[in-house]
Specification:
By secondary structure, the protein is an alpha/beta fold. It has 15 helices and 13 strands. Strands 3-2-1-4-5-6-7 form a 7-stranded parallel sheet, with helices on both faces. Strands 10-9-8-11-12-13 form a 6-stranded parallel sheet, sandwiched between helices. It is globular.
Length: 379
């Protein structure tokens, strides 16, 4: 096949969207590093401009829109972006945020991260829920190819949309770059000193959303503190958003406010140091499309205790100790066992080091390129 001219719609991306931001960042970095044959046009907002550097294979187009303004973004996508695709003679357009424009004839690839809006509609504001339930079905049905971030998400697509051909669904999980690796003791000690972190600590990386299950984690941790005052401190990295008051009430009710360290937003290159510094990752999420923090922690040698849900079973398997995230006692018991058993933590680290090889960029890039070729084949 001749060189492809591929559009990347990055207008949705900004740091406050959490795991989706990380997925987009990882894929863009992977494309820039591994594709020397095809050409890419990246359409960026003011917030996503930092994701792209002009290189031999990638050019960014500044749209000037505010990526945090959903109404402005959607209008631009449904009108101007289709015309831009024709202007740049794109062979296909990759849409990274569950939806696409409805009228463009340019072959489209849509990345679907999850279908939480169908599983738990109450977690979304009415306007956002209406938008997703209107645009997701139409986007998936009109796309040349669909990328699911996990096998679990791929199964959900066929569950909720039985008319969609499974042959159009491809799994491309988030590529975990080689910067995510276990750092030296000197590097982790320097990081701990900078942020005044203790020698041992639990880590949870997640923005505050209902399905991230902070409430049950706090209740489980409170039980551990009452049982043993020597329990490791709990370090949290994530944005509270509009839930700051709710979080403060949870901490006050649990009586653990002075045992919690809430880190500020970190630079991207500091995240490997955070994972490498942690004694263990606790991941109590009720629902995940992929669960990128689990993958990043495993790559950095941080052993994982996680919810027994499909996404963590898919990517961690027996490299993590699992629990029932809806049962406080189950969370607390898993944390207590993991903290007490150094051999178990070491075994999880060893298993994770083998699993992470399948998540490195060269494997993911090969799968992504197959999707682009498939989408363009019908042109």
């Amino acid at each position: 096949m001749n060189t492809l001219n591929i559009g990347l719609n990055l207008l949705h991306a900004h740091e406050d969207i959490g795991g989706v931001w990380n997925y987009i960042k990882n894929v863009v970095q992977m494309i820039a590093a591994y594709d020397s044959e095809n050409k890419y046009i990246a359409f960026v907002s003011r917030q996503s401009d930092c994701l792209v550097q002009d290189t031999a294979n990638m050019r960014k187009v500044h749209t000037g829109i505010n990526g945090r303004n959903r109404q402005q973004r959607v209008i631009y996508e449904q009108t101007v972006l289709g015309k831009k695709g024709k202007e740049y003679r794109l062979d296909c357009m990759h849409w990274f945020a569950n939806t696409r424009n409805l009228f463009s004839k340019i072959p489209s690839i849509v990345t679907l991260h999850d279908l939480l809006v169908y599983k738990d509609p109450a977690a979304f504001r009415f306007d956002h829920r209406l938008y997703l339930k209107t645009f997701i079905p139409r986007s998936l049905r009109r796309s040349a190819a669909i990328i699911a971030v996990s096998e679990r998400t791929g199964r959900e697509i066929t569950l909720y949309f039985k008319d969609i051909n499974r042959d159009r669904i491809f799994v491309v999980s988030s590529p975990i770059g080689y910067e995510f690796c276990e750092l030296s003791q000197d590097e982790t000690e320097c990081f701990k000193k900078k942020y005044r972190l203790p020698e041992h600590f639990w880590l949870y990386v997640a923005n505050v959303y209902p399905h991230k299950n902070h409430g049950n984690l706090f209740r489980a941790y409170s039980d551990l503190v009452r049982k043993s005052p020597d329990v490791w401190p709990l370090v949290l990295r994530g944005e509270k958003g509009g839930a700051a008051d709710t979080i403060e009430k949870m901490l006050a009710d649990s009586g653990i406010r002075d045992r919690i360290v809430w880190l500020p937003r970190l630079k991207n290159d500091e995240m490997p140091a955070l994972y490498s510094s942690a004694t263990a990752l606790i991941f109590p999420s009720l629902y995940e499309g992929g669960g990128i923090p689990v993958m990043e922690a495993m790559a950095c040698g941080c052993p994982v205790v996680a919810s027994d849900i499909e996404a963590t079973r898919e990517f961690a398997g027996d490299a993590a100790l699992t629990f029932d995230p809806e049962e406080v006692r189950s969370i607390a018991a898993a944390m207590e066992r993991f903290a007490a058993d150094g051999a178990l933590r070491a075994a999880c680290r060893e298993k994770a080091s083998r699993k992470i090889a399948e998540l490195r960029p060269e494997k993911a890039f090969s799968r992504l390129l197959d999707v682009y070729k498939f989408a363009c084949n019908g042109k």
